[in-house]
Amino acid sequence: MRAVVVGGGLVGSTLAARLAADGHDVVVVEVSRDRLSELADTLDVQTVQGNGTTVEVLEAAGIGGCDVLIASTASDEANMVVALIGSAIFHVPRVVARLRDSDHERSFRAIARQLPGDHLCVNPDLAAVEKILSLLPVPGAADVASFLDGKLLIAGFPMGRNSAFSGMLLSHLRLLFPERSVLAVAIRRRDQWFIPHGEDEFREGDLVYFSISPAELDNVLELIGTRRASERRVMVAGATRVGIGVAARLEKAGIPVALIDEDRARCHEAAGELDSAIVLHGTPTDQGLLEEEGVGKASAFVACADNHQLNVVACLLARRLGAAHTFALVDNPALSGLVGEMGIDAVISPRLLTVGLAAQFVRRGRIRAAVALLEDEVELVEVDLGPNSRLTAGALGEVGLPRGVLVAALLRDGTVIVPGGGDRARPGDRAVLISTTERARELDAFVGS
Amino acid sequence: MNPRFDLHLLGWFSLLLAGLLLLPLPAALLWSETSLPWLGSAATSALLGLGVVLATRTRDRRLHPKDGFLVVTGAWLLASLVGALPFLLAGTLGPVDALFETVSGFTTTGSTVVVDTATLPRSLLLWRALTQWLGGMGIILFTIAILPLLGIGGMQLFRAEVPGPVDEKLHPRLATTARMLWGIYVGLTAAEWLGLRLLGVSSYEALCHALTTMATGGFSTRNGSIGEFGSPGVEWLVTLFMLLAGINFVLHFRLLQGRVRDVLKDVELRWFAAILGGALLVLTITLHRPDVPIGDTLRAASFQTVAIITTTGYVTADFEHWPHVAQLVLLLLMLVGGMSGSTGGGPKSLRLVLAFTSLRATIHRAIHPRAVVPVKYHGEVVEDEIISGVWGFLLAYALIGLAATGVVAAHGYDLLTAVSAAFTAIGNVGPGIGDVGPYDNFSHFPPLVKLALSFAMLVGRLEIFTVLALFSRRFWRH
Q1: Residue that terminates a domain, selected from A319, A335, A352
Q2: How many domains does chain A contain in total?
Q3: A207 found inside a domain
Q4: Residue A194 and residue A285 in one domain
Q5: Mutation for testing the A interface, residue in B267, B363, B368, B370 having most A CBs under 10 Å
Q6: Do A190 and A274 belong together in one domain?
Q7: How much is the CA Rg of chain A, to the nearest whole Å?
Q8: Do the Cβ atoms of A129 and A102 come closer than 8 Å?
Q9: Domain membership flag for residue A369
Q10: Do residues A433 and A408 touch, judged by C-beta distance below 8 A?
Q11: Tens digits of per-residue pLDDT, A9-58?
């Protein structure tokens, strides 16, 4: 497949790298020469210098025969123009536009409906809001994703000193959960990711991804050493789109929210959009203000300011003042690597989420959802199994699944089955597979039709 | 400001009034009553108007928002002066009494100095009812066309509700809106007339009461007001139409468009209904007697609650003999008034909603000193300017009410009479409590009190600042 990526910023370049790794021919269009040479040096992609909103430049990038066009410049307007040129003039079958403003998104969808091809709008802010909202009900988790219409939860927990799992053999999970409703599906140990077996053991300092049936969540949390707060109160720092979005969704759910921002005008705007949430004017690192507004009793502190360094600092302060769980918006991969050691529960990267959504759209077919776990090293895929899928050829242990690929769950007739090596998958089932990213291509070939 | 053109407009208005003064003439002829008052006052008004129109011809026809204050106050004053002529010419009322009665009419108040309506010719009673009906019509135009332009007392909010004026000129859409709202006004009047006819009320009395109900005026052809009909059916029907008249006419318009959901979502309507319901509950409980059927108590309570909150001021019961709690509730309802955009008087429930919401925000700020708490109405942030306008209005309203109370009390009246007379006047309600109770009238007041109350009625009807602005030195400075 040929892919054209317009805009070589963090999202564009990460996506280009991901697509190139998946075996696509990628062309990156970027205005800045400096940026472009940087990309050419580090990635296995072709580069074209120029303004992607012009037809000539896009033609030079080979938009004519391409399968995927991704508009990921910093400007919504430019992205809309690029996407519309791709659809209307060159009939590109799959077009992704990154749009931050929901009004733009609405307009774009309305126009796109009239045009040939599939379109996807990705909104980094909205993606971050969704991620935060899925993290909040699972305290202690560094990452959460839900699959099979919410019937399966995949959550990654760092193994702390309090965790009852530390030192336990994986096969002992079956003693605790004989129904196999809880399964360890991936482990990161000292920056190495692997798909574990029964003989592996949990160690302190591991980041372990579990697949959990929602009914068992409270039991897992207890074993991890956390628990859901009986009374939820959330403090959000930063009246950004993400901050306001999170506050709005929480207040709708009846959870008390306080939103802090240092800019008075933004506070007014936020107070206008929100209803029961308290909007406070002040710096998120003002200890007096945080204490006065009861950060010590907060079940969660979410830092969503545009300044990501400030987010980390605010979270550390909130943690020290007694906030039960802290979450920070951080895009810089170097920074987010540090955060786990500092005691911040989870970092959310809007750009990485955008990359994940776009990559998932590009691979779409029978794949319903593909979610990259933290740091893009492990991938979860939800897929409908067709009549000719190699996965249905025999017992799961015998169909020759590549190493590092695991079937986490099957959905059959509305019930979730956690299969063992002797179980069979049937055509018509929906499967959740987990694999390291480097195996993703083999996986695609394996489940295909 | 363009005072010359303002006068010119008032001249034309005088000519219009001359035409309106001829309306009762056919009735006078039909009932073989004297036609002198009508011909005389119409001729005076026409000559006055013609003189002014000719004397103030001008090429400069530009109008500014400031002209609105002058023209509106001038129009109500002129209507009251000219409209008083028939009472004078008929020889039934003295000059001050005639003025009081007409001001009470055009401001849709309904306080009267007529001791016995039977002594007045029927054509004059018809005119009395007409002054209220025309006043109500004027108020609708004033509310939708001029008030948002002047932007006083927080009523800028109305701009968002009705397609508002963009330039200083009357917008064509505005004219359309005014016509539609007038259509509703006329239609409801006709409906009530028909309803009263079906209940056996004479054609003439049905007309007079339909006219004064829709204006939330309250003049009656009977000394004992609606109660004298002794008909539960009439009382329920009038209650219904008083209520309709006290509801924002824009909501009626939406209802006709079929936007029922929008109407039910209206915040002011919900508050209005809640206040009404609460008052009704208290009244029903305090008035309940084991020997009286609950239906009768409920009817009396509903009628009086609606009559006072909509500032119509009809009566069916002598509430002076009601328990003090019930009287207090009625007195407080005078301080609510109808909805904005209705013909009702008082401070208007919209302002109370905003004031209450702003109070709540103030308390919220006290608890969270660093919190940013905007006042919201219908989910939208209300600008501080509007909120301070509302508070300014309520303060001015209270101060003028208290000043009028002082004038009445200084003439030797008891406090309850003084307070209720003052606030019934500024709220354009009609009856008060004490010496101005439901079955009393205002004729016993000395002339100075009558003039002071007339002024209060005018100030209250024109949303306080329209009149008060004229007393400011800055207004007259260029």
Answers
A1: A352
A2: 3
A3: yes
A4: no
A5: B370
A6: no
A7: 23
A8: no
A9: no
A10: yes
A11: 888 998 898 888 878 899 999 998 888 888 888 888 888 999 989 999 99
Determine, for residues B374 and A268 on separate chains, whether the beta-carbon distance falls below 8 Å.
yes
**Does the beta-carbon distance from B370 to A270 stay under 8 Å?**
no
Q: A167 lies in a domain?
A: yes
Q: Which residues contact A42 (CB under 8 A, 6 or more apart)?
A: none
Q: Determine the distance from the C-alpha atom of residue B195 to the mean position of all C-alpha atoms in its chain, rounded to a whole number.
A: 23
Q: In whole angstroms, give the CA distance from residue B448 to residue B445.
A: 8
What is the distance between the alpha carbons of residues A14 and B164, in angstroms, rounded to a whole number? 52
For residues B207 and B193, the answer to whether their CB atoms sit within 8 Å is: yes
The DSSP code sequence of A326-382 is EEEE---HHHHHHHHHHT-SEEE-HHHHHHHHHHHHHT-SSEEEEEE-GGGSEEEEE
CATH number for position A341: 3.40.50.720
Other beta carbons within 10 angstroms of residue A37's beta carbon come to 13
Highest mean pLDDT among A157-161, B243-247, B251-255: B243-247
Quick check: A422 and A397 in contact, CB under 8 A?
A: yes
Shared domain for A206 and A294, answered yes or no, is no
Chain B touched by A257 (CB under 8 Å):
no
Distance from CA of A273 to the nearest CA of B (A): 8
- Same domain flag for A341 and A256: yes
Whole-angstrom Cα distance, residue A56 to residue B412? 93
B367: nearest CA in chain A? A293
B9-35 as b/e, with b when 16 or more CB fall inside 10 Å?
bbbebbbbbbebbbebbebbeeeebbb
Q: In degrees, to the nearest 5, what angle opens at C-alpha A84 toward C-alphas A82 and A85?
A: 65
Tokens 């009906």 label which residue?
Answer: B133
Q: Is residue A387 part of a domain?
A: no
CA A441 from centre of chain: 20
Do B308 and B274 touch, CB atoms closer than 8 A? no
Q: Name A383's bridge partners.
A: A367, A431
pTM: 0.80
Which of chain A's residues have a Cβ under 8 Å away from the Cβ of B381? 268, 271-272
Same domain, A168 and A208: yes
| Residue that the structure tokens 């892919």 belong to | A3
* Residue among B345, B322, B281, B347 nearest B433 (CA): B322
Give burial (CB, 10 Å; 0-12/13-18/19+) of B277. exposed
Regarding whether A333 and A267 lie in a shared domain, the answer is yes
Identify all chain A residues contacting B371, using CB atoms and an 8 Å cutoff: 278-281
Amino acid, res. B244 = L
Please tell me the number of Cα atoms within 13 Å of B416 on its side-chain side: 13
Q: What is the DSSP string of A411-449?
A: EETTEEE---TT-B--TT-EEEEEEEGGGHHHHHHHH--
Do A212 and A288 fall into the same domain? no
Model confidence over B299-330: pLDDT tens digits? 999 999 999 999 999 999 888 889 999 999 99
Element spanning B208, H or E? helix B203-214
Give the integer Cα–Cα distance in Å for B377 and A293.
Answer: 26
Q: Classify residue A395 by its DSSP letter.
A: B
Q: Is B5 helix (H, G, I), strand (E, B) or coil?
A: helix
CA dihedral A302, A305, A311, A314 (to 10 degrees): -70
- Of the three residues A306, A327, A352, the one that is the final residue of a domain is A352
Q: Is the pLDDT of residue A279 over 60?
A: yes
Contact: A289, B368; criterion CB under 8 Å? no
User: For residue A201, what are the domain limits?
Assistant: 148-224
Q: Judging by DSSP bridges, how do beta strands B380-382 and B375-377 pair with one another?
A: antiparallel
Secondary-structure percent of chain A, ordered helix, strand, coil, rounded to 5: 40, 25, 35
Please give the full DSSP string across A83-103, using - where no structure is assigned.
Answer: HHHHHHTT--SEEEEE---HH
Mark whether A26 and A105 lie in a shared domain: yes
Stretch A225-254: mean pLDDT: 89
Query: Which ranges constitute the DSSP H helices of A147-214?
Result: 173-176
Alpha helices in B258-314 (DSSP H): 260-265, 267-287, 294-309
